[in-house]
Design a protein that fits this description.
It is a single chain. The protein is an alpha+beta fold. 47% of the residues lie in helices and 15% in strands. The protein has 21 helices and eleven strands. Strands 3, 4, 6, 9 and 11 form a five-stranded antiparallel β-sheet that branches. Strands 5-10-7-8 form a four-stranded antiparallel β-sheet, with no helix packed on it. Strand 1 (79-81) and strand 2 (87-89) form a beta hairpin. Helix 2 runs antiparallel to helix 7, helix 4 (41-54) packs across helix 6 (94-112) and helix 11 runs parallel beside helix 14.
Length: 583
């Protein structure tokens, strides 16, 4: 017993887990912060649980009212209206399934304490946070377990490498800052998938094959495109001989084992069909109506190399993995080919989505869970005992920690940069205001542009004095009724400032219905770098999407809001409103 405690105290994974748990609970565990645990996309992933188990409300109206009343949030952008007027949740229910035990704990504890069972109180938020932490730790456990099985020659290195992988990649951020996104759950499921696959590689019992089918189904329900995980199977099995052996054992052995896998997978996917039926009365729903893939025009290179979202720019650790793949080629051409197939296929699908930057708050968000497999060729660099590698890995982990600290302290609103702001943001020896760096662009709205209205074209130079709070803007009516038409806006302007830096001046997009009962309000800081425009004119471009999934808005206002009463000049102001029809 004493030896076990001693070994645990010297385990890097133990301390990493302890730091993760402490960080999650201190970052999100206060009474005020708990109200924001289930937020952004997480609202849609979670909404199935209160809507089904508490309110029995397929329209989500009661659960939405409860969420707004308790948390103060009115951002139910996960709800869509179909052509028949039915409301449905656009997100898949995988996280709701994984969070169901913790939701049950929230209901039970609320009942025992005599509190309202509403699905959104601090108790429910806390148990959601606890569930996220649980799956984060399990993901970490399976990561180490699988790496030790795949690379037994590096058993002593792996416990030290896992903290480096976490700090040098977005894994740390999505476990702590945004535990409501899918990525930590997918990372855990990838680990469980690989663990089961390695068991089957040794001896394929039907129970393991059944569980593998079940886990693959859950991977699909959490993030549908992650079904591409099946393409990593040859790489994990390691050789064509082993792939053929497992194939013969599972597929050709009287069909029983493959029937088990297909039954388990189908039972999970059929659950989705019943969810759709419960919401809309239809057995199949394209829940992302008005959104889709641009298969022939993916933003592939931008996803790999741009300052905005580039994988190799924001996670340079993976450049070492690419280098390691060269040595993997010398060792196993089979694994080399299938690693690259997995990598390139996933990047193509990720890059083809219309919102190709995924509005990522940190790094290249959709690749986060794939780090589980993408780092594996890096181990080939250790075969020659390259001491320099540890130095590089340490520097990359320090860079990751610095980036994490920047995000947590508010140095940038989102980690999407321009070329200029990226290099300036690395100047850690300089101090600067909170939210110095800002990003003003969204991907173009999905679909075919059917109209473009120029709302304002102001070419003259205009001085904005401190007393002018709303110096410039425009307003437009939106057509009603609509089906799946979507609106996007674009604003261009030149700006010059008189102070050392600009803060508290925003470009506002305010869309609403006549009674202001439904509203989409976005205020974007009027800069990419708050110090820009001091000595010369700075050209800025703003692009955004008007999220009107319920087709309620009938007007939009776009204007400059001088909240902090700053002194500046603008010219060449052009505001455009575009309408798109979903393909």
């Amino acid at each position: 017993m004493n030896k076990s405690i001693f070994k645990l105290a010297y385990s890097p994974l133990f301390w990493l887990a302890l730091i993760l748990a402490f960080s999650v609970l201190t970052k999100n565990g206060s009474s005020d912060n708990l109200k924001q645990v289930i937020r952004s996309d997480g609202r849609g992933y979670y909404a199935y649980l209160p809507a089904f188990f508490i309110y029995d409300d397929p329209s989500f109206s009661k659960s939405s009212e409860a969420e707004k009343r308790i948390t103060g949030s009115d951002d139910q952008y996960y709800l869509f209206k179909d052509g028949k007027g039915k409301i449905h949740n656009k997100y898949f229910p995988g996280i709701a399934i994984l969070q169901a035990p913790f939701f049950g704990l929230g209901c039970t504890v609320s009942w025992l304490m005599g509190r309202e069972i509403n699905g959104y109180s601090n108790l429910f938020q806390f148990f959601f946070l606890l569930g996220s932490l649980f799956y984060s730790l399990l993901g970490m456990y399976f990561f180490q377990k699988c790496l030790k099985s795949l690379f037994p020659e590096h058993l002593k290195k792996i416990p030290w490498l896992i903290p480096i992988f976490y700090f040098a990649t977005p894994l740390w951020y999505y476990c702590i800052i945004t535990p409501n996104f899918t990525h930590l759950y997918s990372f855990f499921l990838f680990g469980l998938f690989t663990f089961l696959l390695l068991k089957i590689k040794e001896s394929s019992h039907w129970q393991q094959v059944l569980l593998l089918g079940l886990v693959t189904g859950l991977i699909t329900l959490v993030r549908p495109t992650n079904i591409l995980v099946i393409f990593v199977i040859p790489f994990i099995l390691g050789s064509p001989e082993k792939l053929k052996s497992v194939w013969n054992e599972i597929i050709l052995n009287k069909g029983f084992k493959i029937a088990c896998a297909l039954f388990a997978y189908s039972s999970v996917i059929i659950f989705l069909l019943f969810i759709w039926r419960w919401q809309t009365g239809e057995w199949f729903v394209w829940s992302y109506k008005g959104e889709g893939f641009n298969w022939t025009q993916p933003h592939f290179w931008e996803n790999l190399f741009s300052f905005r979202i580039g994988l190799f720019v924001h996670t340079p650790l993976l450049l070492l993995a690419v280098l390691g793949s060269y040595f993997l080629y010398k060792k196993s051409t089979f694994q080399f080919v299938f690693w690259w197939i997995y990598f390139l296929l996933n990047m193509w699908v990720i890059s083809a989505w219309w919102c190709w930057d995924y509005e990522s708050p940190f790094g290249n968000r959709p690749t986060t869970e794939h780090i589980f497999f993408l780092v594996m060729p890096l181990f080939e660099l250790f075969d020659k005992n390259r001491r320099w590698l540890w130095g590089v890995l340490l520097l990359l982990s320090l860079l990751g920690i610095y980036r994490f600290q920047q995000s947590a302290s508010g140095a940038f609103t989102v980690q999407r940069f321009t070329a200029g702001s990226y290099f300036k943001s690395l100047q850690f020896w300089k101090s600067y205001p909170v939210s110095r760096f800002n990003f003003t662009l969204s991907p173009e709205v999905f679909g075919t542009k059917i109209s473009e209205d120029l709302l304002l074209d102001f070419q003259n130079e205009k001085e904005i004095r401190a007393e002018e709070e709303f110096p410039l803007g425009s307003e437009a009516k939106l057509d009603l009724p609509r089906s799946f038409e979507r609106y996007g806006y674009r604003v261009e302007l030149d700006k010059k400032i008189s102070d050392d830096f600009l803060d508290g001046v925003y470009l506002v997009m305010d869309a609403s219905d006549e009674n202001l009962s439904h509203r989409h309000y976005v205020a974007t800081a009027l800069y990419n770098d708050c110090f820009e425009g001091k000595k010369e004119w700075k050209h800025l471009v703003f692009e955004g999407i008007i999220h009107d999934n319920l087709q309620k808005f009938d007007r939009v206002k776009i204007y400059i809001w001088n909240q902090n009463h700053r002194h500046l000049w603008v010219k060449n102001v052009k505001i455009t409103l575009c309408e798109y029809l979903a393909d």
